[in-house]
Amino acid sequence: MYSKYIKRIFDILFAIILLPPVLFVIILFGFLIKLEDRGPVFYCGKRLGKNGKVFKMFKLRTMKVNAPDIRNPDGSTYNSIDDPRLTRIGKFLRKTSLDELPQIFNILKGDMSFIGPRPDLPDHIYYYEGDEIKKLDVLPGITGYNQAYHRNSVEWKKRLENDVYYINNISFILDLKILIRTIIIILLRRGVFNETTHTKSIKINATE
């Protein structure tokens, strides 16, 4: 009942309430992004949604225009404080997670929830094993169990394990705990970057 109906009602209500301040922040940082390199304000990356549906996830652009895609050995996107692809304003947006704010539009569209597993890249569906496919049983979230307790400090397979745990135990209380933990960890700026040292590059556009 909660995961199927009540959670979606909460998403819509909170998205509408938060829309005015979120729009203000987006406009402010959109101006700063444009001022730095004249490139696009938004990054729209393809992601896996509920039931395997591919959708475009909105973010404020944090990387330089036409930056190369760099992956960790497990196939997850590379994310480091020393990433040369980040713009100056992009580093601040990543540290504060403000780059995720445009995903409020994904919530209103029905592609995402405030809380749920973070969406993977479309090609990751071929690497799910066993119960990991259950990740696609629910809407992906702006934040989730991994972000609340680990941010980007654990490898992709461990994140999938945590996603399955969340789906098997989803409840209002768990979502509330995740929300509170997310606020705390963002304020403390812990685990923002995954300091994986060995990476591999592939020749496609950047995936933020």
TrEMBL record:
This is Undecaprenyl-phosphate galactosephosphotransferase. PANTHER family: COLANIC BIOSYNTHESIS UDP-GLUCOSE LIPID CARRIER TRANSFERASE, UNDECAPRENYL-PHOSPHATE N-ACETYLGALACTOSAMINYL 1-PHOSPHATE TRANSFERASE-RELATED. Residues 7-187 form the Bacterial sugar transferase domain. Signal peptide: none annotated. GO terms for molecular function: undecaprenyl-phosphate galactose phosphotransferase activity. The chain crosses the membrane at residues 12-33. InterPro entries: Bact_transf (IPR003362). Its EC number is 2.7.8.6. Belongs to the bacterial sugar transferase family. Keywords: Membrane, Transferase, Transmembrane, Transmembrane helix. The keyword Membrane applies. It holds the Pfam family Bac_transf. The keyword Membrane applies.
